[in-house]
Amino acid sequence: MRSFRFPAMGTEVHVLLPAGRGGKVAAVRYFFLDWERQLSRFLPGSELSQLNAAAGRPVVAGRLVFDVVSAAIDAARATNGAFDPSLLRQMTRIGYAHSFSDMPSDADPAADRPERGGAWRSIVLDPGSRTIVVPAGSALDLGGIAKGMAVDAALDLVEEHGVEAALVSAGGDLAVRGTPPGGTAWPIVVGDDPAGQVLPLERGALATSGVARRSWSQGGIRRHHLLDPSTGEPASSGLREVTVAAGSCRVAEVAATASFVLGADSGGDLLRRHGLAGRFTRDDGTQLAVGGWPSPLESAA
Amino acid sequence: MALSASGRTLVRVARPSHDHELVRRRHYARVDQLKRRVGFASVLGFAAFFGLAAQHAVKSSSAGKTAASAAKSSTASTAPTTFFDETGGGFSFGSEDSGSLPSVQQDAVPPSPPPIAQTSVS
């Protein structure tokens, strides 16, 4: 297999392709950059930014933006709001207004009171005309689902190009197709610890939601990007991270975020209810396996 | 053969019986042809009618669906969801010995962003 890495969608994209198929990576890179151009909340000219700027008014969206917004609303319904794509104002309030690489060491303190989420319930979608109405005073952040959807779509793309096996990862949210040459499963080291658990993933996707990387200080208060919609503040569920295995990266990504917000008990129920597997890592470092999550088989040397 | 009383001979040729049969057959053949044409036209007419009716029904239905979907979209938060109903095989894990491939780190630390500019000594 050949490994390729490039920056896109505010993270690093990692692509594994069979030897001799490396020529397809250019198409994958262009694909991710196109998604970023349309869906990034950090680009003022993106279609998402324009949609948010027009809150309160109907906007005819492009097909990609409409599909991602529709999927995000569907995910919010399916998790009863634990996954909430309408928390951009709350995210900005706590200091995450720019790309994480541009974050100041200590953001300015919040000027107003926290605001609960839930505005997604009032978003109007008309599939016939691809019209979206974002409620006035609210804004969308698709960061919790767009990467997963991009990973799934990128694998569809390489499959259409005749590539028989591939792995695509966007910031650790990854999915695989086919069987890697020389093996029967893809050996994935879970998390960012090189000595972490090795998971032999035969098919499907993995996604992790955690606070270790995207955390910052705001007026001396520790903040992170996984917000609790019921408070509009960073979730305090006693967890450090959650990794979920699912059939698609979009489901894994949403389930990981929702489970983190819900906590180990309710989050575990969510995963079991939908036939998913997961690993919860608590603040004290202890771990809980849910569903068919394999027991630690080995650690990477 | 009848002879006129004026002395001129008018010959009334009596048609032989097989001519009558021929005329009768031709008559019925024309009737049958007309019947077939009328029947065909009727079928076409009914087909056209039902086609128009079906088209109208589809248009009404789709218009109704559009109206319904527009109405539904305003209450999308209560609509049923299939988000977790995945197609395409789901996920699965292999055995401990799944090959000799090098491990892939799931969550590698992303590279630092490149500098915006770089000074040089002139």
Considering the chains and any ligands shown, give keywords for the structure.
heterodimer, A: 301 residues, alpha+beta, nine-stranded antiparallel beta sheet, three-stranded antiparallel beta sheet, 17 strands, disordered C terminus, B: 122 residues, mainly alpha, 1 helix, disordered N terminus
Percentage of β-strand residues of chain B = under 5%
Taking pLDDT < 50 over at least 5 consecutive residues as the criterion, the unreliable ranges of chain A are 297-301
The description of the largest β-sheet of chain B is:
none
Measured distance between first and last alpha carbons of chain B: 138 Å
Short overview:
The complex is a heterodimer of chains A (301) and B (122). Chain A has six helices and 17 strands. Chain A is an alpha+beta fold.
Q: What can you see in these coordinates?
A:
The complex is a heterodimer of chains A (301) and B (122). With 301 residues, chain A is of the alpha+beta class. In chain A, 28% of the residues lie in helices and 27% in strands. Chain A has helices spanning 25-39, 47-53, 63-78, 88-93, 146-160, 249-273, and strands at 2-8, 11-17, 58-60, 106-107, 124-126, 131-133, 166-170, 173-177, 186-189, 198-210, 215-218, 221-224, 227-228, 233-234, 239-246, 277-282, 287-290. In chain A, strands 1, 2, 7, 8, 9, 10, 15, 16 and 17 form a nine-stranded antiparallel sheet that branches. Chain A has a three-stranded antiparallel sheet with strand order 3-6-5, with no helix packed on it. Chain A is globular, with a radius of gyration of 19 Å. Chain B is mainly α. Chain B is built from one helix and two strands; from the N terminus they run H-E-E. Chain B has one helix at 17-73; strands at 92-93, 104-105. The interface between A and B is large, with 70 and 39 residues. Strand 9 of chain A pairs parallel with strand 2 (104-105) of chain B, so a sheet runs across the interface.
